[in-house]
Amino acid sequence: MSDYRIETKCIQSGYTPENGEPRVLPIYQSTTWKYGSTEQMGKLFDLEESGYFYTRLANPTNDAVAAKIADLEGGVAAMLTSSGQAACFYAIFNICQAGDHFVCSSSVYGGTFNLFGVTMKKLGIEVTFVDPDSDEETLNAAFRENTKAMFGETIANPALVVLDIEKWANIAHAHNVPLIIDNTFATPINCRPFEWGADIVVHSTTKYMDGHATSVGGAVVDSGNFDWEKAGKFPGLTTPDASYHGITYTEKFGKAAYITKLTAQVMRDLGSIPSPHNAFLLNLGLETLPLRMERHCSNAQAVAEYLSKNDKVSWVKYCGLPGDKYYDLAQKYLPNGSCGVISFGVKGGREAAVKFMDSLKLAAIVTHVADARTSVLHPASHTHRQLNDAELEAAGVTPDLIRFSVGIENVQDIIADIEQALNA
Ligand SMILES: *Cc1c(COP(=O)(O)O)cnc(C)c1O
Question: What is the per-residue pLDDT for 140?
Answer without folding.
Answer: 98
